[in-house]
Amino acid sequence: MKKSILRLSALLLVLLLFPVSVLGEAVDVEDVKMLESSDQALPIDFTPGPAPKEEGFSETTDENGNTVYIYEDSTIRVVASETRWFVPDEPKDKTGTQIWMADVTIADPSQLRTASTDALKKGGDHPLGDFSDSSKTEDVAKLAAVYNAVVAINGDSWGANGRNEKHNYGIVFRQGNLIDCKSKLDPAGKKRMDLLIVDENGDFHGIHSAAEEDLPDPYTVDGKKVMDIFTFGPILVENGQAIHDYQGADRAQGGTWMYMRSDEDAQRIAFCQLGPLHYLLVASAVRKSGKNYALTLPQFADFLAAQGVQFAYNLDGGQSSIIYFSGIGSYNASTGKKRPLWDMIYFATAEQ
Q: pLDDT-based confidence at 348, cuts 50/70/90?
């Protein structure tokens, strides 16, 4: 297994250091193999999933000769690929933007899981990853190894509360448990943020500019139990349509929303749903002289909508923008530096 990981890591490093002008396109949604419904549901708690199987990892090449990395067993399929996107009608975009994606199909919604660094806290007495302690951050590779993540993405930096204005308002709800709410959904209505809600079927729902009274109660949505709620945003794609206006009058609560540099170009990351039990993790690169044209949030939303996603949610970008695929290593959309994480969203195999 170690040899396989090192070999795939080296290949990814080559892709990151020497990007070519045109890379592979995203996987066609209609061509993705849909898995059989699984009776191997994982427990709804903070325990890790089974370890991925070494024989599940493989690689192939796309029509442009670029390497595509795959993990597949009877309960999960991950296709990791890289592309370069040129912003339509943007004369300044001479190089395109390096974008990395992981297309994920699972058999059971319990395979979409969340975890915090609590399990790695030395001397701690917290249950495994229960989000009760925000004092520790950790490298995503170590966190993914503890939880046997097949593929993972950084979360909403829940533990940064008090350290950064963007993290002072919100709700922490994970694996069917309310962890924290307090008064962080700004009652004044000036610094509200969009929420991503994941229900028991693994389907995404959003609340724009959420106040505490907007929360689903008793934590159900459309008659389904809530499994996770994330506070960051904004929502970038809804019902397949890109959203460009993040503060205007068309938004809930009169357009109140925390300013998050939507018109600045930066490295971005998004958690997206393509269809039932079908997801897309997407990270776009930071601006590099002569190599990358970094994206604004509206541009990023346009790219995501073009991939056929039905719902896309912006997560903590910058050096926090990390996609980790256990057969390859981590892809970081910034300058190569990786910010330690408080939490991650991950997908696990359910195959014992």
A: very high
